[in-house]
């Protein structure tokens, strides 16, 4: 029988890889990325938005891959996807852009799942919780008072 904790790991890795590849592509072609941003109407502070997008995608993806602070990163990437989707994928007359819009909405659903349920058993978060629980001093027993 398949341990379902592996499914959480696989889902988290698949989400993380998507953002890692996207961030690497942005790093590989900063000028092209910023030109695309300008073409889509982001005519000011493109360098700042470019740096922020790379940082969010790379750091967020690594956090998802490792399962470190996964709930917070799930929310961060979910919130990042809202303006990204609305700015770059709302030309619904183009079937390709409609597919990208729906893909992003689906990814946002996966990120909400991570934000709600966390990284799962096979993650740094779970390992840190186990370490903290083992290091915590034992709680003293309380006397039961019967009347």
Would you write up a description of this structure?
With 147 residues, the protein is an all-alpha fold. It has one domain (4-129). Helix content is 75%, strand content 0%. Helix 1 packs antiparallel against helix 3 and helix 4 runs antiparallel to helix 5 (95-117). The mean pLDDT is 93.
Q: What portion of the residues fall into strands of 2 or more residues?
A: under 5%
Biggest pleated sheet: none
Oligomer: single chain
- Overall number of domains: 1
Spans of at least 5 consecutive residues whose pLDDT stays below 50 are none
Rg over C-alpha atoms, rounded to the nearest angstrom: 20 Å
Please name the defining characteristics of this protein.
mainly alpha; elongated; 147 residues; 6 helices
Task: Summarize the helices and strands and which ones pair or pack.
Elements: H1 4-28, H2 30-39, H3 46-66, H4 70-88, H5 95-117, H6 124-135
Helix pairs in contact: 1-3, 3-4, 4-5
Structure, briefly:
The chain is an all-alpha fold and 147 residues long. Helices cover 75% and strands 0% of the residues.
């Amino acid at each position: 029988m398949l341990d379902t904790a592996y499914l959480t790991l696989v889902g988290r890795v698949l989400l993380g890889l998507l953002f890692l590849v996207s961030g690497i592509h942005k790093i590989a072609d900063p000028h092209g990325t910023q030109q695309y941003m300008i073409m889509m109407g982001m005519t000011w502070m493109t360098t700042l938005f470019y740096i922020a997008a790379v940082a969010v995608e790379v750091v967020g993806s690594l956090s998802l891959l490792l399962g470190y602070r996964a709930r917070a990163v799930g929310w961060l990437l979910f919130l990042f996807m809202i303006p990204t989707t609305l700015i770059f994928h709302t030309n619904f007359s183009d079937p390709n852009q409609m597919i990208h819009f729906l893909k992003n909405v689906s990814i946002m659903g996966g990120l909400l799942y991570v934000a709600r349920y966390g990284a799962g058993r096979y993650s740094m978060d779970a390992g840190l919780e186990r370490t903290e629980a083992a290091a915590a001093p034992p709680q003293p027993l309380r006397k039961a008072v019967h009347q």
